[in-house]
Amino acid sequence: MLIVNIIGNPKVFAYKTIRALAQIQLDLSTHDFQKLQTGSFKIKYQEIPEESARLVAETGKDIITPVNELLQFTPQEKIPVIIYPSMESLNESFGWEGDKSPMGVYWLGTIRVLAPEAWLGEKDSETRARIFKDMGPMAHEYVHYVVDYKTNGNYTRWFTEGIAQYIEKKITGFSLEEPTVEAKLNIYPFNKLDKDFDRQEDQDLAYWQSLIAVEYLVEKYEEPVITSLLDELGKGKSMAVAFEEVLGMSLHDFEEEVKKYAWNKALGEN
Question: Which in 98, 106, 191, 236 has the greatest CB count within 10 A?
Fold first, then answer.
């Protein structure tokens, strides 16, 4: 049976193997971190109070059920989360240079987050907990985890970013800063985002148009369309084929409709 699966799905097998090896490598490189296993998460951390690790765990517990219900997903194992005490240490875990990084990153089966105190400063514990739960990275990064596992890595960048923002906004109320009206009238081609999402000059625009693309999908076809598309991608189908089969329209036509939707949003039309 294993041999048949390997031959029938070589890309899926290769991706799952790479993801598993990446998790093993990260587990080994963080073997001396402190550990906290709670609920559906296995958390590792260092150089931060246990209180902060428990805040990350509590936030994960708050968001996991609504995300799973929205995306019809059941984790098959505990989700690994690594907490880093500073931007520098988070950057270093990826080999990134510079002193800036996001508050959280999902990569090959593991969620990595910046410790709450590293970006919230010397706030009291109650305020820190409230802000972290409302604005922290756990909901966003866990959605990326789910999308990755449901599709076996077969997704485009704008699609996973749009889904993550849509669900994060629905669950926590948080959304990123929007681009200017002028920018909204000149959105990027989606194939450009797929190739070089992080290199686009206007990151606010890249994230915003990813979000409104998913919002448009939900507005026109309702929420189950997200899971339907993920299920087709999970079968190894391309985005273009998935859109044709689920929506009955080409990816190109969808992009044109999103462009008009973005213009209406920018101009304040209904």
Answer: 106
pLDDT score of 269: 59
pTM of the complete model beyond 0.85: yes
At the top level of CATH, the class of 2-147 is alpha beta
CB 148 within 8 Å of CB 155: yes
Q: Taking residues 176-182, what's their average pLDDT? A: 94
Calpha distance 169→133 (Å, rounded): 12
Distance CA(109)–CA(81), nearest Å, equals 9
Q: Running DSSP on this structure, what letter comes out for residue 39?
A: T
Distance (Å, rounded) from C-alpha 59 to C-alpha 52? 11
Chain centroid offset of residue 185 CA: 26
What is the rounded average pLDDT of the residues 39-55? 96
Tell me which H or E stretch contains 151.
helix 138-151
Please choose, from the candidates 142, 140, 47, the residue with its C-alpha nearest in 3D space to the C-alpha of residue 92: 47
With tokens 């304040």, the residue in question is: 268
Q: HEC string of 124-188?
A: CHHHHHHHHHHHCCHHHHHHHHHHHHHHCCCCCHHHHHHHHHHHHHHHHCCCCCCCCHHHHCCCC
Sequence-separated (6 or more) residues with CB below 8 Å from residue 19: 108, 109, 148, 153
The band of 122, judged by pLDDT with boundaries at 50, 70 and 90, is confident
Q: Please give the pLDDT value at position 95.
A: 85
Of 119, 30, 47, nearest in space to 82 by CA: 30
Q: Could you tell me if 228 and 249 are in contact, meaning their C-beta atoms sit under 8 angstroms apart?
A: no
